[in-house]
Amino acid sequence: MTTFGLDSNQVVRLASAVLADGEAEIDESGAAEVFARASWSGIAEPGDSVAGALVAALGPVQALTALVDGWAMERVAGAVGDAASDSLTTRDLALAFDRWRPRLVSNAVITSLRQAARVSARLIRPTDRLWPAGVDDLDVHGPIALWARGIDAAIESLGSSIALVGARAATGYGEHMAMELGAGLSDRGVSVVSGAAYGIDGMVHRAVLASGGLTVAFLAGGVDRFYPSGHDALLGRIATVGAVISELPCGSPPTKWRFLQRNRLIAASSVATVVVEAGHRSGSLNTAAHAASVGRPLGAVPGPVTSPSSAGCHRLIREFDAACVTSVDEVLELASGVVADGADHPELDLGLDSASDRRPPEQVRVLDALSARAARPTADIARRTGLAVSATEGVLGLLALEGAAIETEAGWRKQKR
């Protein structure tokens, strides 16, 4: 087992400090799995299907050993065997190993584990009692592990929770509906999930907390780095009486790519998703797309037909068969509905808040990793993006051609428009 220079006793101590389910002791084998899953949460970007398939086929410990020890792709493929032969081709594995290697920093996982222990964060494994079963519907795109701060009751409530999401640029009407639905569901004993962003998300969380209910916030960065900073007090309160969850290790910064991937956890962990208010290209519609992809009931709150802030909700109702919901009773009715196996669900191809939807994902990730002030070497950018160095070089070249990035003697930086 690869433990980056730690002996077995040190690994056991680190793993024990972040155990979920209140286990008093853990053996060496269990500690190795905790350490490996913690490592993978920082090595692979959220939703990496190759990492998910490899860990499912080999287990987190052997998969990490194969990466760190530099196994030949033929040996990896042989170890995988028929377990995932269709989803793990030799070429896919080679490309994946190239993009994971820049993140093999010896002390990264050790630092994240120690920071997790400092903030009382726990690592939840798929075999743990607290694991939200709904995320398993994401298959190989699901999380390898989850990091959480909060109370067990809130995490356990995810199996019967409802997601309420919406745009950051909320109107007074949208905030009113967010409060009505959040507080109403809380009064009915239903846990509410959202993303802790400004606007609708924040109002939902506040309404549930004011009603004394349970709420869970999924973050796009580490659970030790509350984001947005203006919601630091709100997230601190959620982490005390609810739960704050992420699939990224402590110390990880939020990025546009990670926000989009975070949305799939919001949708999959809950039994239904309701978009409270959203513009025509709101990022909250991305959560709706994920809900549809895993067969979760989808609802949208209508607004004034003259309001651009409700155009996305109207689009969901008109084009994508979202249920029109106007009250807590209708949300509960939506959540109690059963989606028949094999039913046809419309393919949701919905825009985002920013120009990121007009760029390939690799360009979005590289731009997120660039700074407008400090130049960064290509290897550092590759580590931040989770891309291979060669792929990062190619993307930087394309960005340079269009004037979005500039190369200096010290490295690359974002070109100010």
Descriptive account of the structure:
This protein is α/β, with parallel strands linked by helices. 45% of the residues lie in helices and 10% in strands. The protein contains 18 helices and eleven strands. It has helices at 8-17, 28-43, 49-58, 60-68, 73-80, 90-100, 108-118, 152-156, 172-187, 200-210, 232-241, 256-269, 284-293, 311-319, 328-336, 361-369, 378-385, 389-401; strands spanning 122-124, 146-150, 162-165, 192-194, 215-218, 243-246, 272-275, 298-300, 323-324, 405-408, 411-414. It has a nine-stranded mixed beta sheet with strand order 1-2-6-5-4-3-7-8-9, with helices on both faces. The protein has a two-stranded antiparallel ribbon with strand order 10-11. Strand 5 (215-218), helix 11 (232-241) and strand 6 (243-246) form a beta-alpha-beta unit. The longest helix has 16 residues, at 28-43. It starts with 7 loop residues before the first helix and ends with a strand.
Key traits:
417 residues; alpha/beta; 9-stranded mixed beta sheet; two-stranded antiparallel ribbon; 18 helices; 11 strands; 45% helix
Task: Detail the topology: elements first, then pairings.
Elements: H1 8-17, H2 28-43, H3 49-58, H4 60-68, H5 73-80, H6 90-100, H7 108-118, E1 122-124, E2 146-150, H8 152-156, E3 162-165, H9 172-187, E4 192-194, H10 200-210, E5 215-218, H11 232-241, E6 243-246, H12 256-269, E7 272-275, H13 284-293, E8 298-300, H14 311-319, E9 323-324, H15 328-336, H16 361-369, H17 378-385, H18 389-401, E10 405-408, E11 411-414
Parallel strand pairs: 3-4, 3-7, 4-5, 5-6, 7-8, 8-9
Antiparallel strand pairs: 1-2, 2-6, 10-11
Helix pairs in contact: 1-2, 2-7, 3-4, 5-6, 9-10, 10-11, 12-13, 16-17, 16-18, 17-18
